[in-house]
Amino acid sequence: MKRLLLRTNAFIRAAQRTLKRHPLITEDMQKKLELLSEDAFHPLLKTHKLKGALEGSWACSISYELRIIFRFVQYEGAEAILLETVGTHEEVY
Q: How far apart are CA 38 and CA 92, in angstroms?
């Protein structure tokens, strides 16, 4: 089931900052976002639930050090993915 990706303003700013620092991952990020939309639990994404202050959110991997933080939400009667932020492990956790 393909899910719509909803980008928060915080995600957009974080993505711009991340891509400025790591321009070579632009294609990888796009591929991982497409994969997330198609199958949020694909093994390549290493999707996992978060605890503590980020409880209710999930994380997936773009690369060894970069993560996307997101939530599953309802949007116009369908399940969607709300992209919250992106960055290094240290930045997002």
A: 23
Provide the whole-model pTM. 0.94
pLDDT in tens, 31-64: 999 999 999 999 999 999 999 999 999 999 999 9
DSSP-based three-state secondary structure for 3: coil
CB 83 within 8 A of CB 68: yes
Nearest-angstrom CA–CA distance, 36 and 11:
15
Q: Which domains, ranges and CATH numbers included, belong to the chain?
A: 4-92 (3.30.2310.20)
Tell me if 67 sits within 8 A of 43, measured CB to CB: no
Contact 84, 8 (CB under 8 A): yes
